[in-house]
Amino acid sequence: MNICFFTMDYPPKIGGVAKEAKLLRDALIQKKHSLTIITEKLFDDNEREIENNRIYRIPFTKIKKIGASLFLIKAIRLIRSLIKRKKIDILHIHSFRFGGILSYFISKHIPIIFTIHESSFIKLYKQKKYKFLKFLLAKASIITTPNPEISSCLKNLALKSPIKYIPNGIQIKPNLPPKKTKLTNKVTIGLISRLEPVKGIRTFLL
Predict the structure, then answer these.
(1) Nearest 5°: phi and psi at 115?
(2) Dist. CA 169–CA 165, nearest whole Å
(3) Cβ neighbours of 150 (radius 10 Å)
(4) For the segment 112-150, what is each residue's pLDDT rounded down to a tens digit?
(5) Are 17 and 94 a contacting pair, CB within 8 Å?
(6) What sign does the dihedral 2-151-39-82 (CA atoms) show?
(7) For the segment 66-102, what is each residue's pLDDT rounded down to a tens digit?
(8) What is the pTM of this model?
């Protein structure tokens, strides 16, 4: 299958969404799917294509009011061109704000999956921006989220699209300790994360 990811967060950008998008891409390529990534260009990064994978990085002009519009216009034109050339069978959106607007120009051509990762969704929900959220997600064929709180919010919006709660996968093998390491009953957990209230981080050890 020819799958396209639209995401504003992708390596070398750092963050949970970027990491999960990359891990999912790698897993799908292993399953012999063809992947296209459309993301923001952070700097002059001419990443090489690898087997079954294409990456398009669109510059985001930091101009008030028109920067986002120019970016979306370029992304829509690119996706439509790829659909016309039969390079995309399905669009998977990982950035719901820009992706929600973009979906209105694409939904007639191919199915669209939304995955809602961002804690900004919960902020908008708590601000009672229900109509805005329903507008952004109206064109989704299906909506998934790795966050149970977001899943609950989505169900409360009474959207027409099916909603699936799917926890993020964990890459186990690279994180295993060296063979010579002696395992003990003592468990040490490290976390690298933004301090978002929704993540429930309450205690720091110094």
Answers:
(1) -115, 120
(2) 12
(3) 23
(4) 999 999 889 999 999 999 999 999 999 999 999 999 999
(5) yes
(6) positive
(7) 888 999 999 999 999 999 998 899 999 999 999 999 9
(8) 0.83
